Amino acid sequence: xxxxxxxxxxxxxxxxxxxxxxxxxxxxxxxxxxxxxxxxxxxxxxxxxxxxxxxxxxxxxxxxxxxxxxxxxxxxxxxxxxxxxxxxxxxxxxxxxxxxxxxxxxxxxxxxxxxxxxxxxxxxxxxxxxxxxxxxxxxxxxxxxxxxxxxxxxxxxxxxxxxxxxxxxxxxxxxxxxxxxxxxxxxxxxxxxxxxxxxxxxxxxxxxxxxxxxxxxxxxxxxxxxxxxxxxxxxxxxxxxxxxxxxxxxxxxxxxxxxxxxxxxxxxxxxxxxxxxxxxxxxxxxxxxxxxxxxxxxxxxxxxxxxxxxxxxxxxxxxxxxxxxxxxxxxxxxxxxxxxxxxxxxxxxxxxxxxxxxxxxxxxxxxxxxxxxxxxxxxxxxxxxxxxxxxxxxxxxxxxxxxxxxxxxxxxxxxxxxxxx
Amino acid sequence: xxxxxxxxxxxxxxxxxxxxxxxxxxxxxxxxxxxxxxxxxxxxxxxxxxxxxxxxxxxxxxxxxxxxxxxxxxxxxxxxxxxxxxxxxxxxxxxxxxxxxxxxxxxxxxxxxxxxxxxxxxxxxxxxxxxxxxxxxxxxxxxxxxxxxxxxxxxxxxxxxxxxxxxxxxxxxxxxxxxxxxxxxxxxxxxxxxxxxxxxxxxxxxxxxxxxxxxxxxxxxxxxxxxxxxxxxxxxxxxxxxxxxxxxxxxxxxxxxxxxxxxxxxxxxxxxxxxxxxxxxxxxxxxxxxxxxxxx
Lengths: 421, 296
Hints:
The structure holds 2 protein chains of 2 kinds. In chain A, β1, α2 and β2 (55-61) form a beta-alpha-beta unit. By secondary structure, chain A is an alpha/beta fold. Chain A contains 17 helices and 11 strands. Chain B is an all-alpha fold. Chain B is 71% helix and 1% strand. Chain B has helices at residues 3-8, 13-39, 55-58, 63-83, 85-94, 99-110, 117-127, 135-142, 155-183, 187-195, 200-228, 232-238, 250-260, 264-288, and strands at 42-43, 50-51. Chain B has a two-stranded antiparallel ribbon. The radius of gyration of chain B is 24 Å and the shape is globular.
């Protein structure tokens, strides 16, 4: 079976087959060059496997904001939308307002739904229908710099709770003088996974703002204390974990750990080459005994628009590219993402050496994922969420973590009040 | 009467001549303005747009709005405080002395305004990056000053960046306005003043400045609008998300609500609010300068 699968992809790489079939044009918009490359490879495989339903895919890459705005206007005005579009998770609710311009994918997804990490389908749904398919689980993990751990005498497999992690942080700080971690002030990846771990969120399922609840307040206070009380964390250079300054800082062994989703692996391999062979991946510490050790973060929901002239073909191709087993294996191989179908995580194909397995100390990266697959709760994606994110990224984090000018409780209360407006 | 002769009558011809302008005006100004006013009373969602009365107007005031208003106001005041007096001084200097050299200097001052904001903003962002390897911080370090976190360091640094970029870009344009204003002042006035024993400073304050007033009023008016309508500079610096809203402008807020959060009704309301603010300030300014007073 596996052989035939990989053969299909291999065959696909051969020059166009001799079928003189007329190809159907499909347009696709994305905001990420790597995604476009992936779709282009997937369409070659699709055409090899479906000689009677040939596709001529035109994948266009736009800047992030640009693409989302164009798509919003196109759907609003009823003209000019592509057949298929990538929509980033924090923008997705904008496209589910009013008469939804996207097509439900449930008829094709239902037979394979059980093989998906359920949380990753729920986030692109409304009223029981699913409108997008994700690239990855985005399982949040802890990346440890093992040189610094060794220097501090820390055994990372003994770290089970956040208390353990803080203790290890104090040891690292005392022995090496380096901060245990960095915390983002202009983005949300230091904060969102930690509250999601505790089954809390920015909003509840009904879309009510919950950003100022107890768990969220305590968690933001925890991050604040790491910086200003225990002094084992610093604000991420450049403000977030995708800044050039942060990459340089971390590459030089600036901090001992970072928690980010699995998809962040690619940033290590591409932007922090000096850490090769030094990093190990583990689940996040738990908050309580038996608590969750991960959270699903970020995502791109790919959707088919109602304006497509070939809705059925577009849907079939989308489910093939992002929902099929072979597609999911390719997503790991080409993009380094943790695919949404958990039934591929234990597939031998996932253990084949690639630039990610060569970079990290883990003998089997997906073993880590399998451990936490049932410990990921969905985040609530809705219109209020978009507003909360805007507020906390623009103000709350800067005030509480950056310039330490407001307490977590006060700042979150203010953010909640603004987001409710 | 034939078609041709009908077009030639005094009654019809003027309308034919103004038609292109009218069509453009109706399509690209009147229609959008009317739609904006309409949309400001609506909740705009695909296929289910509905009238919601004054709800959008009730939601105008929030912390983002005050931030945008504050940033817009400070930015406008600072740009006017710099971009009116400085170009006047340069204009006076460039209006005297060697003609050929002046042309070269004028071109040098004007050149930045030909550069797209996006390009200039990107270059500025790189120059003012917070690492000590960036150009500006590198220079600061050489003279013994600690590197500054320009983009994320706080409101003062952010405002400095925006005003600096505006000064660099618009100095040359305002310079051209003032030079043409200066050239309209009759030379005899200066000659007469010189005979009466006025020194250069007196001549500047008693002749040049009063006679430049129309130009100053004009430049201030367009600067008020330009200041409050500023968007690209801030967007390029912070991609629409500045810490503590240090770079959020009125148009930035409109963009955020309309395109980033998908609420075009609310964005239309902010558009109208912006128009009212700018209109009020411009009128106040014109009144202050005595623009409506009848000439004696």
